[in-house]
What does this fold into?
Amino acid sequence: MSEQLILKSAQVGPWPMNSYALICPDTNRSVLIDPGAEPDTLRDLLGQSTPLAIFLTHAHADHVGALEAMKQELNVPVYMHPADSPLGVSVDVWFAGGSQFTLGRHTLDIIHTPGHTLGMVTIMLPDGRAVVGDTIFKGGPGKTWSPQYFAVTMNTMQNIVFQWPDDLVCHPGHGPSFRLGDERPAFEAFLNRQHADDLYGDITWEM
It folds into this structure.
């Protein structure tokens, strides 16, 4: 029986944001997720593993600051959802709906979770953990840039994110990890309150 994937994280950059490495302990193969800054720190995350790819949960600048440096060093393909292509980041492989990626003896599911950006994705591990990027944080969803983007986010929350099990542990692009079920009561209370039609921006479930 395979051991579960090793998930390592580090806060990098001035904001800061969370970069991740996923490593299969049986094969020592890895992927780097969201190389935001500090190549030396990202190199330490990967350790002596053999990288297969760089994943971008989305293409905002704080998540890709060290992308070119790491791509040149690791010589592996960069994966991203095509809906973020207008943001100008050069990639090699497009994620599509229902994409999967084999990492050693494990299969990762790539789930499109738009809102913060239209190409946002979540990387679902096979063991009750997920790297959610800026899809959702402890206390609220990722920042949105217009009422239309916020409507997309709320559709994602209702029809995708909060369809996942309560015990799922979410690892976001900023801040601490959290258990999805701990967010559910506040999210449902948010849905039951009246909000302005033009709501968007930095939203919390307490609003």
